[in-house]
């Protein structure tokens, strides 16, 4: 009787250990899935930020080129410009 009870307790303990192990694995995989989702979300955000930055840099480059052309025009039409000595 005592041996049977001990065997059942060992079986119950073994089942409990297996359940704890499965719960740990589930928690770990769930954590990885959550982490992957977060990484994908951040990656998307960074890609969007990179696109906005590229557009901003292109606009700044266009504005700088236009300003440079305007300054060149003023320079070449300026009466203060020193004559070329060639």
- Number of DSSP strands? 0
Helices, by number, come to 1
Note the gap between the termini. 119 Å
Low-pLDDT parts are none
Tell me the β content.
Answer: under 5%
Question: How are helices and strands ordered from N to C?
Answer: H
Name the average pLDDT: 88
Biggest pleated-sheet summary: none
C-alpha Rg, in Å? Answer: 36 Å
Share of helix among residues? over 70%
The gross shape turns out to be rod-shaped
* Helix/sheet category: mainly alpha
Protein name: Mediator of RNA polymerase II transcription subunit 22
GO molecular function: transcription coregulator activity
Subcellular location: Nucleus
Keywords: Nucleus, Transcription, Transcription regulation
């Amino acid at each position: 009787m005592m041996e049977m009870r001990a065997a059942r307790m060992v079986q119950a303990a073994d089942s409990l250990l297996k359940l704890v192990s499965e719960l740990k694995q589930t928690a770990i995989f769930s954590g990885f899935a959550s982490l992957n989702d977060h990484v994908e979300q951040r990656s998307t955000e960074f890609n969007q930020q990179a696109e906005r930055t590229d557009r901003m840099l292109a606009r700044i480059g266009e504005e700088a080129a236009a300003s440079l052309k305007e300054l060149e025009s003023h320079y070449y039409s300026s009466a203060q410009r020193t004559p070329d000595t060639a």
